């Protein structure tokens, strides 16, 4: 509110759209951002990671279902709460009018965002097979992700040169791209389709990297615990 006292908009955002943007960040963080790395690292250290190797358990499906299961009941109280908070803040939820195509694109983008973050964090967790301490990797990733995904501020606030570099990185497709769709700051069908295809490209790429690291890790993994 203080930033908007002397100006109507900042980098294309009014106080209303900025309010909706940050409530959108809250919703996405709470509903789709996965955290499989911490439990997987502990399983590798304790030796229980062996269960995925000797039993008919698909590691990806097991972790993915684990991440999704508790988010379903969480959505029932979190989403209405966010709309209530947004109603009494500067923004109004009815200021965003979505078409079916825009809403569908947003939902697809959220799904791809989940998969993208999931496979990246699974890759980071598997480094515990070789590294004694992986926490610094998670912390470093969170720092870069917070800045370049649009979690701290909208990406349009960053210098143009930084934005150009970030366009080639996967970070903006965590949060920023889905939010830009729902805020209708991406109006071109071509840009939406291109963004979704880029998300899909990164998902497939990191899945292949995950498979490679998993196959290499299995050959090096030693279970010392139960």
UniProtKB/TrEMBL annotation:
Keyword match Kinase: no
Residues spanning the membrane: 12-32, 68-88, 100-130, 136-157, 192-210
Record keywords, A-Z: Membrane, Transmembrane, Transmembrane helix
Keyword Transmembrane helix (UniProt): yes
Organism domain of life: Bacteria
Protein name as catalogued: ABC transporter permease
